[in-house]
Fold this protein.
Amino acid sequence: MTTTAERPQLSPGATSLDTTVVTSWKAPIAFGIFTLIALGLAVFAPRAGDTTYRWSQESDVIQVPDLVVPAQQALWAVVALLAVATLSSILRVRSKRRIPLWLVVVFAILFMFGFLTWAGAGSSLPMIGLLFGSLSLAVPLIFGSLAGVIGERAGVVNIAIEGQLLAGAFTAAVVASVTGQPWLGLIAAMVAGMLVGMVLAVFSIKYFVDQIIVGVVLNVLVTGLTSFFFSQVLAPNAATLNTPPRFDRFPIPLLGDIPIIGPVFFRQTVIVYLMYIAVALVFFGLFYTRWGLRLRAVGEHPQAADTVGINVNRTRFWNVALAGAIAGLGGTFYTIGSGIAFNKEMTAGAGFIALAAVIFGQWDPIKATLAALLFGFASNLQNTLSVIGSPVPSEFMLMLPYVVTIFAVAGFVGRSRAPAADGKPYIKS
Amino acid sequence: MSPSHRSPVRRRIIAGAAAVAASLALASCAPAPDSGDDGTADEACVRMVTNSGGLEDRSFNQSSWEGLQASEDEYPVSAEAIVSTGETDLAPNVQQAVDSGCELIVTVGWELAEPTLDQAAKNPDVAFAIVDETVEADNVKPVVFDTAQAAYLAGYLAAGVSKTGVVATFGGGNQPPVTLFMDGFVDGVAKYNEVHGTQVRALGWDKAAQDGAFTGDFEDVNKGKTLTESFIDQGADVILPVAGQVGEGAAAAALERGGVSIIWVDSDGFESLAANYRPVILTSVLKNTQDAMVEIVGAVLDDAFTNEPFVGTLENGGVEIAPYHDLAALVTPALDGEIEGLRQAIIAGEIVIESPSAPR
């Protein structure tokens, strides 16, 4: 009571400042563009026929009936709803109110539904396969982005995720082939990723070498080393050294029988279950444990952390090593995760996408995971649409995951704030 | 406030781009494999420049190199390969090959067309051969394959063995050497439907639109696997991946899901892939680069080198489909007979497989 009464006297402008809401026209403009795109599809490229959404596989215990929608009518309905959403966002911004997140999400889902219905006219869309594949494509990205989050939260930029993934994939293939034990391959991959992480840590923390340069060099080094060993050692002895066994699918009882969710999330390999655990552990650890507090402290304000007795460089070193181990674990998905032999540069830039997911996810493990899932979804959407023969040219479809990522980063994430001491070596004075 | 916040982001993006560029540039420092004895003064020599696929691509780099090694056994010639690892080292590698003073330079892949033409113009006395690309120059011999002929037989076979009535194909990228397979494949399926009055569908390639399903690169095996799973979800049970090592993802998906078979390309997948994929390899669309290489080396040594393109066809054995191996039980004698009949018809010129990508 008294404080509110005194406030105007202390600072006359305080009340007006308190009620100021920063509004931006970004969302209404984006909404408008997407509504126009949907309208354009409905007017200039009308599609006849029904689109069938299949929600179950034949093997499922509980069958969810197919959803059949007439494509053209559904698209017009979507256009109308999108227009309503756009109008309401314009009104909200004009009356200086924020655009709620749910509106953005509903808009995105509506647009996606309209687009899918349009593109899939006359065919059936296996939703389980679409979502399952999205998760499969996202698994290495999620591990990579967790590694990125841990490293950067501790103040070390981990550009070497690509190298760690590749080192993990390579080591897992070789060790699992030689021993016949995928579990040993998994452990070896974590060690390999950790070693790459340690090299990054030593150079960036002990010798203050620019972290980005070390990371880039490590990527090149690992690419070169694995390619060299692949051509010189693995290729001539493929039967003994590069025929990895794979982790079998392990459906979780009960959970695996839930319609839609079960076949997508709970009929996976051990690596994917480890990923769920890793995401949960990293999130909980980072924000609710002493380890996480110290980790964030050395990344935000190393001097303060040092003052209260945290050994900054040691904390950073071991966390970068841990990040490497996690990325190495992600690399196993490429080889022993699906029983595929190691191939040169088989990670194909996933580490860089993971790095984008870190920034897109605002250095938060859950948001980074969602970002990686979005990328996986966009990639597999492109697959599914090209399989059913969509009317969109394939070159354009191949851009889709990147376009979606750019839009998402630029349009909806807004400003993302890196940990304050991210990328800066701590030199004790 | 805001510039200092954004700078790490910007730096990272630049660094990411730099990383890609640097990995392309620096990875090229990998040493070329030594084939043992260096060309002595009186011995003729051949240099081969690979594209970024490398020597173990189970495709034309590997088969060209095997052909050159075979020619070493047959003729007094020594061969060496220069391995390219990215776009940036193609031209320097061709330069290096020319600088070696060898009589014949073999380059592999359409990416090398420009550097090859460039060097061919500067060195009119040196013989060049380029695999899988048609170029016109007085001293460059294109070595190309009408893979559509063999893929046509494979498409007919696929339609014949499919139980679901759906077959599929996908490529690594929308490029003529890739889509040539896909054109032949869908035509073969159409022929089967015409002969048998069936409605077998071929997914993944629309010949009229010349567009279809692609993974976008030839490296990401994981993507090949998920794309193949999408095809299997649509009911496809015979799949032709034309995407180099990405095809291994297709084989892995087929193995995992069961009841699906794969048609490999370039080499016999039954031999060149790991043994655990053997149960899913129905056949392969072969490119016989080996014999073509031996022939060209022989021609160079005999001063009979011409710039006339070598076009591999069913007739000259340059393209072929591989034996059915473990899946021979799926192919009825009647179907096998029909395929043999088609082969003869293609050789006799009674059936011509049209494709905008066909070598001229």
Chain B touches chain A through 59 residues (CB under 8 Å). Residues 34-145 of chain B form a domain with the Rossmann fold fold (CATH 3.40.50.2300).
